[in-house]
């Protein structure tokens, strides 16, 4: 059996990379909903319908767990999937809690980058309300970044100009941590670290998500007998998009540009 990872596009590969690192004895399926990417600009009901449709197909592949490697999809559809299926469903949330904890002593603020839909959901607002006792968390929607990523656009000059334009709205000296609240965004971690002030840390939720996955697998006695093999699928059954997934996977793992 395999562990399935699901996202609207290539972003969830950043979470899968962490899973391969932490769980080398598992096999994996990565499913991209290429028919409907990106999710960020769509309505809550649209995304819920897309995620439920994709989950039905994914779980027909005989998987032992499903990771929703997408903050937007998690925020609108994770609860419904958990009510519908017995298989463990692990979702994502922006790493706001660890970011707040990192900045508690310094007095610096936290900036969360995410899609508009993620930032508008009650799940995100409740998360911030629960952990942000001192009102240090700010949010910045960056919907264009998903489009850049899906086009495999990693041009440093163009993306640097884009980031600098967005960050011009803030005094970055006030911030200690930038949280990448969309799984597409970690493709640009190194670039962000180059253009942000040196004191700012850039984090995302992949490590914590995979730790939760590993804990659930251990609790249920689902010991892996695989070898880290990854199989790619997409909702359009498009071989060209599977090749794009492989290319993006190689880029993440330092085997291409």
The share of residues in extended strands comes to 15-25%
Strand order of the largest sheet: 4-3-1-2-9
**CATH topology assignment of the largest domain:** Rossmann fold
Radius of gyration: 18 Å
Alpha-beta content class = alpha/beta
Mean pLDDT: 93
CATH class group of the largest domain? Alpha Beta
- What count of domains describes the coordinates? 2
Low-confidence segments: none
CATH architecture annotation of the largest domain: 3-Layer(aba) Sandwich
Pathway: Cell wall biogenesis; peptidoglycan biosynthesis
Catalytic activity: L-glutamate = D-glutamate
EC number: 5.1.1.3
Binding site for substrate: 7-8, 39-40, 71-72, 183-184
Keywords:
single chain; 257 residues; alpha/beta; Rossmann fold; five-stranded parallel sheet; 46% helix; peptidoglycan synthesis; Asp/Glu_racemase_AS_1; cell wall biogenesis/degradation; Asp/Glu/hydantoin_racemase; isomerase
What does this structure look like?
The chain has 257 residues and is an alpha/beta fold. It folds into two domains: 2-92 and 206-252, Rossmann fold, CATH 3.40.50.1860; 96-204, Rossmann fold (3-Layer(aba) Sandwich). 46% of the residues lie in helices and 18% in strands. The strands form two sheets. A five-stranded parallel β-sheet has the order 4-3-1-2-9, with helices on both faces. Strand 1, helix 1 (13-22) and strand 2 form a beta-alpha-beta unit. The mean pLDDT is 93. Pathway: Cell wall biogenesis; peptidoglycan biosynthesis. It comes from Saccharibacillus kuerlensis.
Describe the structure in brief.
By secondary structure, this protein is an alpha/beta fold. The protein is built from eleven helices and nine strands. Strands 4-3-1-2-9 form a five-stranded parallel β-sheet, with helices on both faces.
């Amino acid at each position: 059996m395999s562990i399935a990872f699901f996202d609207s596009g290539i972003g969830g590969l950043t979470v899968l990379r962490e899973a391969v690192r932490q769980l080398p004895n598992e096999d994996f399926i990565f499913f991209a909903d290429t028919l409907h990417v990106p999710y960020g600009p769509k309505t809550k009901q649209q995304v819920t319908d897309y995620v439920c449709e994709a989950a039905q197909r994914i779980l027909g592949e005989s998987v032992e767990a499903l990771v929703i490697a997408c903050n937007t999809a998690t925020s609108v559809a994770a609860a419904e999937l958990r009510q519908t299926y017995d298989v463990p469903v692990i979702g994502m949330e922006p790493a706001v809690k660890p970011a707040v904890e990192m900045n508690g002593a310094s007095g610096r603020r936290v900036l969360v980058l995410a899609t508009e839909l993620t930032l508008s959901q009650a799940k995100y607002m409740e998360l911030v309300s629960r952990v942000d006792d001192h009102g240090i968390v700010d949010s910045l929607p960056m919907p264009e970044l998903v489009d850049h990523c899906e086009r495999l656009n990693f041009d440093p000059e163009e993306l640097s100009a884009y980031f600098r334009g967005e960050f011009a709205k803030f005094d970055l000296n006030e911030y200690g941590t930038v949280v990448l609240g969309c799984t597409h965004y970690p493709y640009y971690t190194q670039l962000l670290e180059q253009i942000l002030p040196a004191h700012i840390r850039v984090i995302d939720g992949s490590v914590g998500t995979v730790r939760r996955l590993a804990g659930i697998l251990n609790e249920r006695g689902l010991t892996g007998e695989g070898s880290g093999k990854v199989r790619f699928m997409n909702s359009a059954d498009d071989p060209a998009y599977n090749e794009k997934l492989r290319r993006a996977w190689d880029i993440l793992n330092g085997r291409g540009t």
